[in-house]
Design goal:
The structure holds two protein chains of two kinds.
Chain A: E1 3-8, H1 12-23, E2 28-34, H2 37-47, E3 51-55, H3 63-72, E4 78-83, H4 88-97, E5 101-104, H5 109-120, E6 125-126, H6 130-135, H7 148-158, H8 163-170, H9 174-187, H10 193-202
Parallel strand pairs in A: 1-2, 1-3, 3-4, 4-5, 5-6
Chain B: H1 4-29, H2 35-56
Helix pairs in contact in B: 1-2
Classes of the chains: A alpha/beta, B mainly alpha.
Chain lengths: 207, 59
Amino acid sequence: MALRLFVADDHPAIVDAVVRFLAANDEVEIAGTAGDGTEALERIDESRPDVAVLDVRMPGMGGIEVARRLATESSTTGVILYTGYAERSLVVEAIDAGAHGFVLKESPLADLLRAVRLVAEGRTYVDPVLASVLAGPDAAARIPGLTKREREVLRLLADGMRNEQVGRELSISPLTVRTHIEKAMSKLEADTRTQAVANALRMSLIE
Amino acid sequence: MIDRERVHELNNALLPVRAYAELALRKLDRAEDPRSELEELIAAVDRATALARKLRDPS
């Protein structure tokens, strides 16, 4: 079954190019497009795509706000924010809003396709260029040592599981899961659990 | 030194250039005619050139 994709950007040339590039893959079907956030939210609600690629900055409502509203509605659409701004605060805000992916417009389009595939599987993708932005300037000098259990918990979170599901999978209580997540967040200097997963993935601490 | 807004505009203008170049290459790999993608590529380069001109001479 084809992966149904939605694309929103206020630059028609970008929507056309991205749609044409991604639709050239047999596995992708375009569910719709929009030129601003309000239109995107309405059409995503109607068409319920698997993944939505949204520009961060659009007239009226930006992609982060669209992601936040979709998360509030418990939408099943995975959101990828697509932007030219490689800024830590933006990535953190996007992830906190419920976005599952963050891709830079300067990256090869093959990276966007990879992000679409991963997010459709319920996983998280953060552009490799943003790894250092997320982890800080001297991250390489202090790669955090996660315990085996912390890595297992992060791995299952990366697969889209909630604390209760992780607990069942590892035969530990949700409270213990939470403790492992908090310790991993601290070691990875992450503000949120999703950011911890993204940092761990980028540092190759989990696969 | 150009500011972040201009960099953003430039990235927006360059993205279609990359997309249509990659699509044209893919068609060539499959021995298909890439004319349509190359025409879009030229249009995208024209838009990027217009933007560069605007950045050079804002008035």
